[in-house]
Every structure is written in structure tokens, then in C-alpha cells.
Amino acid sequence: MNFSEIQIIGEDEIFKGSKSKYVWLFGGIFIFLCFLAMHYSTYISFLFPISEGIPYSLISYIVVLSIGPFITLITSFDIVSSEIETGSVRYIISKVHRSSFILGKFFFLFLVFISVSTGIALMSLIYQYSEGSNAFQLKNIVLFWIFSSLYLGCFISIFLFISTLSVNNKISFTMSAVFLGILIFFFLQGHDNYLKYLTPFFYGVKNMEFMKNFPVGAGYLTVFESLFSMFLYMLVFLSMSLLAIKRRDL
Amino acid sequence: MKTRNSLLIGIVIGLVLFGFFEYLGLDQTYGGIIGALIVGTLISKTIGKGSEKYAFFSIFTYNLIGWILVFLLTPDGKIALQYGGIALSALVGILLIMVFFYSIIGSFAAFVAFNLSRNKEGQGS
Description:
heterodimer; A: mainly alpha; B: mainly alpha
């Protein structure tokens, strides 16, 4: 693994990659969907206390929780498998380490989705600012940005792992959709079931509590605990991707 | 090893695991998922390329046989059969959905186990 190699792969994906425009397009669609949700949120304002105003960051976060996995699936299912299918991966790994190749791809997607989260967070900020009064809550916006970036990062690492295992885009898409279905199945097993810990949905939904009422005092620890568990989840799947690319025949 | 034999071994091992988890009184969901993961991995190791569909078929079959035996041989199963009606249809429907998901999980386990294994050139049916 070499940082300059990771940087080269990442920059190449952003500026020269054929997939770059497509990923940014879906990122833009994602931001637009969040904009629509915030714009029409006045219709559901009765769901929230009048004194606090409409929680735009929370509405955006709900959109990220529900649509985010599908947008991530569409953008990242073929990130490695397309290179394997066309055989171009052989030329790349003859120049750079296999681990740098995977990490470069991951950081490209992660950077795009961090930018998307930033765009949505800025939009929430503008909406809150335009509402005036005491509704301006920078704390919630920062939390939204960190949580949604990590949540989407978890899904990027999952789909990157599946893409690394697949020999073509068709298999990669099918297996990614199947795994997303399995995760939804695990999450729907109920609150008492331990399977919920295996899904990013659980951590994402758990973080919603912090966006409603930010914990004070010792409660800060729960925020760090949640951040750490999401980071760990991402790290596990990223490690599995690195293991897969090192073991497989290309 | 022939694919047919591998399937048979998968079904038999699955049934043994099904009975073992039933004997231990383990939660059906955990038992079903653990059994599917074990059988899926085992089938991918023996069959090799294209083992996903065989894993799916094998897991679906052993779960189906297992549940039929549970319904026919246990007192609770007999009560459910005697009661009949819409409740039994709903129960069977839910069971089929669960078995379908276990088969998908096993199939995914076979896919991961096969692609994570080294020296795949020597494998295949």
C-alpha cells in the first residue's frame, strides 16, 4: 500500500474515469431528492413541535437513511467488477499495488458522497437560516454531515467488497441487490434480535435520536460509541475487500 | 465429486443441523441463518463455480423437509395441522418466506466463500 498510488487512483477516477460523470450525476439526483423533501416538508410540519420549527436536517437525514443505500448501490456496484470484466484491471495492478487500487476506488466514492452530504447539509443550513427565529442549529447540521457520510461510507464498503468478488457487472449488481435485501431482512427481524447489529440501518436509525435531542454530559460518549461502531463496520468490509483482491485471480 | 452427491450431502448435513438446533431450542432465525451459512460454504467448497444455485436449492430442500417433519412428528405441529384454517395458511406462508430468505443467505455465503478461496482453477463441476 502506498499513499501516492492511492492518490493517483483516486485522482484518475475523479478527473479521467468514465464512471466519474455517472457517479456525480447520481450524487446530484440525491441532492435534488433531499431538496424536494425539504421544500415540501411544510406539508408534514404538523408532525413536529411548532416551537422548534421544521427540523430540516432531520428530514434530510431520513431521506439519506431511506434512499442513500439504493443510490450507493447504483453508483458503486460496478466500481471494480467493470475493470475485471474488461480486463483493464491487469494493466492497473501491474503498475500499482492491489490494495492501493481498492483504497483509491473507495476514497473516490467516499469523497463523492462526502461532497453530496456537504451539499445536503448546506441546503439544510440555508433552509433553517431562511426560517429565522431560533431554528438555526449548526450542531445538528454538523452531526447530520458526519453521520450521513459514515452511513453512506458503510454501504460503499459493502458494495465495493461485493464488486471485488464478482467477475462481471451483472453478478455484482445481482449480489449487491441480494445483500441489500438480506440487510433489510435482518433489520426487520425486530428490536430484540441481535441481527440488527449486522446492518448499517441500525446505526443510522440509532443516530436519529442524537439529531432530535443532542445528549449532554456523559451522553457524548454514546455519540462517539455510535461513530466508532459505524467506522468499525466500514473498516471490516474494507479489510474484506483488500483480502478478496489479494486472494483472487485477475 | 459429482454435483448430485454434493447436493445430497448438503441436504443431509442441513437436516442434521436443523435437528440439532431444534434440539438445542435455539431461536429459529439464528438456527436457520447459521445452518444456511454452513451448508452454503460447504457446497461452494465441494462444487466450486456456479455453486450459488445449488446452495439455494439444497438449503430450500432441507428446510422444507425439516419443517414437514416438525409438522408431522411434534405435538405442536400436530395441533397446528388439526387447527387448520387461515392461521395455518398464514403460518406456512411466513415459513416459506423465511426459508426463501435462508436460501438466499446460503447462496450469498456460497458466492463469498467461492470467490474468497485460492486456486479456483482446479475447481468446478
